Structures
1.
Amino acid sequence: MTPSLDSYVMLSAALFAIGFLGVLVRRNTLVIYMCLELMLVAATLALVAFSRFNGTEDGDVFVFFILTVAAAEVAVGLAIIVALFRARQTVQVDQLDSLKH
Amino acid sequence: MEHLAFTCLSVFSLACALGVVLSKNAVNGAMCLLLCLAGVAGLFVQLHAYLLAFVLVLVYAGAVVALFLFIIMLLDMQGGTPWKFRGLNAAAGFVAALLLVTGLNLLAVRGHLEAGPPIGHSVGSSLKLYSYQLFTTYLLPVQIIGFLLLIAMLGVIVLSRRVPQPEDAK
Amino acid sequence: MSPLSTALLVLLAPLASAVLIALFLRTRGTAASVVSVAAASFVALGALVLAFGGERFTSSLEWFRLGSFAIELGVKFDDLAALMLSIVGVVGLCVHVFSLGYMHDDSAKARFFGGLSIFMFSMIGIVLADNLFMMFIFWELVGFSSYFLINHYCHKQSAADASKKAFIVNRVGDFGFVLGIILCYWKNGTVNLTELGAGHALVYSRLVPLLLFCGAVGKSAQLPLQVWLPDAMEGPTPVSALIHAATMVAAGIYMLCRIHVLMVPPAMTVIAWVGTLTALYSALCAVTQRDIKKVLAYSTLSQLGYMVAAFGLGSVSASMFHLTTHAFFKALLFLGSGSVIVGCHHEQDIFRMGGLRARMPVTFWTFTVAVAAIAGLPGLAGFFSKDAILVLAFGSNKAVFAVLALTAVLTAFYMLRLWKIVFLGSARSEEAGHAHESGVSITAPLVLLAVLSVAGGYTAIYHGAFNGVFSGVPEAEGLTHYFVLATSLTVLLLGAGLALAFYATDGKDALEERAPGAFGFLVALRASFDGAYDYYVAKIQQRVAMALNFLDLVVLSGVLIRGFSGAVEILGFGVRTLHTGRINHYVYWFLGGVVLLWAFAAGIL
């Protein structure tokens, strides 16, 4: 007997919320970024669960795209963070507030 | 049996996720992320998406987290005051996360998701099936993704260029 | 050529002359003077042709329209307009010719003649106007011309001040005038003089004629707005003759005669008394003056008071008759004084003249004719017109009659005083000793005006051209006739005799010597109006202005405008604090947005 769809969705929601919590409270840019990835993974889990329970493969194929985009995003994002570190010598978010009025 | 596997894997994933969020050391966080991804891969397997589980571990855990670790090491952070999960900030974040989880679940409940058993036989991770879809229905997104990757590559090259200092010219 | 085109040419010729002078002849004084005199001759000729040609007409053209409100420009040429136009034309021509000689050595001749031309244009506009709006436009233009010409000697501070005073005091009167026009339009639906006079039901009110009279109070210098006329003598003498004696100040009387259909008895009483009191007051002021032009200015004020009183007593004809004769002899008096002034090398104090009888004979004899006319010597023009007014007063209001008779005594008194001190005796200064008659351009107009001063009173010479105006001139019968005649002769002899006996030709003012108390009283009386206005402006008006300034600066600019901008600034400051620059905070906002959307989707909001 497989767990119901509800369980998978709830699990996915919980993972997403934890990732969100990390984005809200952490000050280190890299850790924030990791929590973003966590959120993406939660989304992929939900997609796969849905595709399994509907009997199609569309959800799975979509996960491919998500993975690709996530990879590209990580690459570019980390490049930005490195450039930022070079300019500011810090990655703590509360010191990167030059947009402050 | 499946239920037990599901429970173990889900608890494991959640714990590691919390570890990512609450760990003081960034490297520890990256390790926790790795383990979390492993847990999720297990869940994928349980959902009969074997190829995806494999791809997840390969691409995400293998490449992305490795890259993260690489950058963490590169940036050589000495870290100022160690961060602790307490205070108004943390409380507000906790409340916000709770809100989010509740909202999402309510959505699921109200949306009357069919809680019926999985339909038909499992599709299985037939590579042939996926590639057929990729090259017919989802051809356009594939092309666009290719473009996106190209742009990302260019972007990374541009961003990581060192600005030539006046001393370098000598 | 049709009368309408003649009238329009008469109106536009001086304008063309002024424009020509302003554009091309600014530095060429002689050429400007020729152009201006040519325009004036054309005007005089045209006026006489129109007046004695017998054609009377009206014509109008719509200028602009706003819905149901339209302003028209038009010509109303009836007997009244014909008479006024002839006076303006003839006297204007005399003054222009006189100016050729008088202003010969002036450095700004072109400006002067340009001003004269503009004035002629404006005055003819008033005369020919067929509705009150058009009249008001030209009214203001005339005020401007007066300002321009009084300020001819612009490097003198007193001339600048006098021109400003004239314009501002006129403006006060014009304010009432405009209110009157608007009220008339509102009540009657029209300001066209023909339509107003057409006899259909007018809405009579006491306010409209009194407000319109305010315009006359300003323009014709009645009490309490008479203060500008004596100061206006700062302008050159030809200007004083043309504008401030014969024509512009008479425009107020002319306007009153035009609107006489709107008059009601209470308003007429007010008008009559204002005129009478002006006449008396000015005559009292004239007794103590040393400057020859100031004496004549106060005399003008007094005679204008007569005209206004005559109108107020109910007779347009008597008023216009006196205006006609007054134009002739007052212009003659001013031009004569101009001749005296230029003969004595620009000396204006009468106590430094004397003995000019032998040295300037033409001036002397023409001036004598004028003095006789104004004093009321029987047979001359002034006698007939003044007599008519006294008859009218005797019939309507005995109190007014008494005051006017007293004023006549004073008139004879100060005019004979002037005449004696200026011309008789021996020269009291070197310039007077070397005085000589000026050229023909100065003496010819004097002679012409002298002839008119004599003959102007006999209405027969007009060959019935102005019957519409002169037919109503009051004539008395029987006992009244003899009584008024006796009164006229008595006042003449009394005033003249007293003056000739009292004043000696020794260079000192006998009144000042022998009755310093009375002299001082008269001087204070003269200065009282100016003093009152000074007090009002300095104490009351200035304080109100400062209060308004405070209101404007503190309340409007400070509290309201800066207050609003300050409130917006504070709001902006509040919003700015939301920009912390920290990503964590922005994510909270993001979550907030999502919650909001959820609420919308769930139907809660």
2.
Amino acid sequence: MSLCARAQSAPPEFSADIVSHDAAGTPGAVSKLRVANHKARIDPDDPSGGFFITDTEAGTAYFVKPTQRLFMDAGQSSLLSRIFVRVDPHDPCRQWQAAAIASGALSAGNWRCEQVGSAPADGIMEYRLLWPAQPLSRRWIDPHLEFPIKLQSPEGTSLMLENIRVEAQPANLFAIPADYRKLDPRALLERIKHSDVWAAPDR
Amino acid sequence: MRINGRNHLAWSAGAIVSFSLLATTVGFADSKDNDAADAAKTESPIKHVIILIGENRGTDHTFGVYKPRGKHQTISNILSKGIVNEDGSPGANFPLAQQFLVAPQPAYYIGAPKKAKMAYHGNGQMPQPNTNGAPSAQGTASAPFTPAFLAEAQALDPSPDFTTNTDTILTTGFTNLATNSVDSRIPNAGVLPNGPYILQGPNISDDDYTGDTTHRFYQAWQQSDCSMANATKTNPTGCLNDLFPFVMATYDLGDNTVPAVQKNFSAGNSMGFYDAEQEQASLLKTLADRFALSDNFHQSFQGGTGANHFMFGTGDAAFWSDGNGNAITPPANEIANPNPVSGTTNKYIADNNFSNCSDFAQAGVAPIVSYLEALPYRPEPNCATAHYYMLDNTNPGFYPNGFRAPSPGAQNMIPASPVRTIGDALNDKKISWAYFGGSYNDAVALSNDAVTAGTAATQNSSTALGLAALADPAHSLGVAYCQICNPFQYATSIMGDPAQRTAHIKDTVDLLADIQAGTLPSVSIGKPDGLLDGHPQSSKIDLFEAYVQQVLDALEAHPKLKAETVVFVTWDEAGGYWDSGFIQPIDFFGDGPRIPLLTLSEYSTGGAVNHTYADHVSLLKFIERNWKLKPLTDRSRDNLPNPKMRDDQPYVPRNMPALSDLFDMFDFDHQVKQPFLE
């Protein structure tokens, strides 16, 4: 199947493991990824529990805590939810920048993102990113999946998709139950300021 | 055989012999399961201690109207004293609880001159209950949540914060009143007479958020109104507890201007109480009916949360240091001066958190030390030279993830503490232990965020975690983790050592998991987060009950573990609530008013009420006796002897200062298997 043929059809649904590696390549934490259409779900390796749902079509990124029947804007809670989303393989920078700005991690300007080389033999496309006041980082995209498959930090640590399985994903994995409520951390903070938990001088 | 306190054993030779044989030849290390904690030899059949600590409820506030169910049991409370009737209405002896106001004085005092005092008279003259900062309406973002938020009764998974125990009551209890206004839900609010009033009526119960009342060190001493001029045979320390609303109404009142400026709205909130005989705090009442309750257990430190938890964990007070164990003077803005602002009735000049109580010249120190010196048993203030002690809530010098604040003075955080903790003592004996703080895992995540963002190095940790929560909503509940409640978070030996921190500082979910897995440590300390801790205004008493029930339910499912476990349920302090009980001053720092202590085990059943004098440090003494540990340091309060109580004065030790090790709340020859709850 040619790359052109792939680009004509909808990108496949799939699941994968997001595996972190240190600079020496030693694997560490494993998060679970599921992707369907314009949505991605990430179940991070985090003792606090919960998962991220991103929707590139709606422009939303939420963190969901089923045990507490809550969801909230993902904000900057995880780099994963800002990077591992469906992208246009020929113009991912625009989406990455928008996601970074929406999360509050980046203000407009001083952002550089560009493809390295062109038309590689294996089809994997490499991009390099220069963030304000940070060294270069690199990302790789699989144009067939229309999805990033690797991130490498300036320090050499990386996040990689492994055990990729192209298969249909249950739609309910990407839905937030209707009775879940959205939590606003600001309101939570105001309540906590009335307790003895809050010991800042402004109490 | 009922195992009495050490002093009782001294005159009971038979008890000594029989108990020693039991402990040394048979011991209590013969359990046949795989529980590692069973390997440690103990002086009793108790192999596991779980201490659950709620927030801000006093004994009369919670059990003021309670009638013991145990045979021939008595209790000291406002019902037994005739201050109120069983329905909570004023009783024949209501004037015993009357409160006073005091004419302006030139300096801070703790025993108000009699000539300067005048009782509030006439309905409504005493400061009235106030909503203060209690939530006005249901919200969708923070408790109390709307019913839709928790419409499904069953959570998808067990969770310490939102379970079937709590999901309903997290949706209820808002005031529907303006903040800082008279709390008209309380019957007759606005015209209440001078004395305690019941928090019960058509519009208010234990399921409602109520206004908080300030509970700080110098305010609490002043409210207690202690003077040897007041001493009597039944109250030999002369603490009258009769300035509660007055201090709340005046310590922050700028009445030297017209109009006066009132920044604090505690007003008369300190006088509210629940009626356990009318289904208020019903879970606590049921536990008291079925197990053992102390009516002479006290907060160990006058004032608030941080210092009381620290005393619980160390038997001592924290002091300002260079971070390497050497006492130094804190920044000027940390030093308290409770003397009145000129022209005001009682507005404190500087309501700050630290005092050098070894120095008589320091504001606020002399009245307390002079009083201690006047007591017949002359307790030592226990104030080391040039040490500035933490009297009020100050965040630890460590973040929850172990990050050490580089400029604690500038960040309003106390430098890392060298004070030895019960954790250190248990480590020395290789006895397992853990502190389980609600939402701790989220707090660690927020701390990591704050370190990355750089705010951990410059901001107070509450502020930095709050900022992190806004950027990292997924872990925002970490702001509800109580840093000042964890005495080990202050300690260099624990928080400064990643291995120690990882091994011993955990989340509530880990407590439940350990019970389930049979890996419960020998000593466990459980502290709910700020939503469930029962603190007025930000939580409710029934939310803390739900937290307790969750732990008890977990234990109930493991009968073998339950059989060798005692669960102590207590509070950090009375939260500024008035109490009618006797107070034994031990040193400069406390004791303070009574708080309930419930002792739940198969060896403490039957609804007994124990009168032996005790405070938070008694919990340390229990651990130390059971696992054969020595007192933590040569100055820690666990060095105090067990009280020698007397029949004619059952609440006053003959050998003050003295603290129970709580062993006399058990009968280790009488094991009764019964459910925690009916």
3.
Amino acid sequence: MNAPAEDNGRGHSRQTPKWRRDFPIEWEGDHYVSRREMVKFLTLGSLLLAIANWATALASRLLHRGSNVERDIGPAAALQAGQPLLFRYPTDEDPCIAVRTPEGRLVAYSQVCTHLSCAVVYDRAQNGFFCPCHHGLFNMAGAPVAGPPTRALPRIRLEERGGRIFAVGKEA
Amino acid sequence: MSLRRQGTTLFAAVLALVATAVVLQLWLLTLSMEALLAGEYRTLVPAALGSTALLAVNAALLRYVFRFDRDVGGE
């Protein structure tokens, strides 16, 4: 196969060098195309990130759904002041703890510690919820007051009706 | 200066803007994931809206790049 010839401007034609045949693209053209393609690629990435963000928002809706079902957790008489009651809410996979405070107020929280998911227990001496794994402590409002946890325990809304206690909602 | 050479410089600037927007979107996504795991659902939809706004900016810049490229092709 013959190599392509080009005019050198003086009436003589000469062969195109081999390196030019191997690398026919100028740097300027190369930069132009590579930057254009990179903009396309990053915009595609931007689309995927926006989709992932909406998927996260949608996932939260799915997780939140079913948090407002009503569930009978036991007779009110079973919950004396300073006594904890363990129950599951909103599903059988979600352990919770209810306590009637010495003042007679009924409070309930998820039993899952917000640090590393150990089960918290009611500690009457410290008047709060204690996590035995890493010595985390939550007060009766569910807020962390000692140890490694930094987030509050999710609160369970309770209602007393007809001598029974019902869990009616879970707050984040 | 040829239109193509102008385009090379222009695309570098566009690329910097798009890359900044993508980094912001990544930051929003990590923020959303943390909020999701913490059970703080209120911040998720605003974060997704912010990410969509950044996508719109990127799409507008890409459209500009396409239009410029068409002009270069017709040069």
